[in-house]
Amino acid sequence: MDDWRDHAACRHEDPDLFHPIGTSGPTLMQTEEAKAVCRRCPVREPCLRFALDMEQSTGIWGGTSETDRRALRQRAG
């Protein structure tokens, strides 16, 4: 079975980019930089689905931050 992670745009990026610490200042720029990688990723949807299914509470997954995923879960009910 083909693993979506093999095709992820982040695969060759520094993993720390996708785990910003904090919510202001330089962290906002880091978050946007990570999300920019996600925007060009061919497996963004499976990545986000994985993060939601596994209840990933930290990091950038599928172009979403922790706050973004929390809002998605709340809307889903």
UniProtKB/TrEMBL annotation:
<keyword id="KW-0805">Transcription regulation</keyword>
<comment type="similarity">
    <text>Belongs to the WhiB family.</text>
</comment>
<comment type="function">
    <text>Acts as a transcriptional regulator. Probably redox-responsive. The apo- but not holo-form probably binds DNA.</text>
</comment>
<keyword id="KW-0479">Metal-binding</keyword>
<feature type="domain" description="4Fe-4S Wbl-type">
    <location>
        <begin position="9"/>
        <end position="71"/>
    </location>
</feature>
<keyword id="KW-0963">Cytoplasm</keyword>
<keyword id="KW-0004">4Fe-4S</keyword>
<keyword id="KW-0238">DNA-binding</keyword>
<keyword id="KW-0804">Transcription</keyword>
<feature type="binding site">
    <location>
        <position position="47"/>
    </location>
    <ligand>
        <name>[4Fe-4S] cluster</name>
    </ligand>
</feature>
<keyword id="KW-1015">Disulfide bond</keyword>
<keyword id="KW-0411">Iron-sulfur</keyword>
<dbReference type="InterPro" id="IPR034768">
    <property type="entry name" value="4FE4S_WBL"/>
</dbReference>
<dbReference type="Pfam" id="PF02467">
    <property type="entry name" value="Whib"/>
</dbReference>
<feature type="binding site">
    <location>
        <position position="41"/>
    </location>
    <ligand>
        <name>[4Fe-4S] cluster</name>
    </ligand>
</feature>
<feature type="binding site">
    <location>
        <position position="38"/>
    </location>
    <ligand>
        <name>[4Fe-4S] cluster</name>
    </ligand>
</feature>
<protein>
    <recommendedName>
        <fullName>Transcriptional regulator WhiB</fullName>
    </recommendedName>
</protein>
<feature type="binding site">
    <location>
        <position position="10"/>
    </location>
    <ligand>
        <name>[4Fe-4S] cluster</name>
    </ligand>
</feature>
<dbReference type="InterPro" id="IPR003482">
    <property type="entry name" value="Whib"/>
</dbReference>
<keyword id="KW-0408">Iron</keyword>
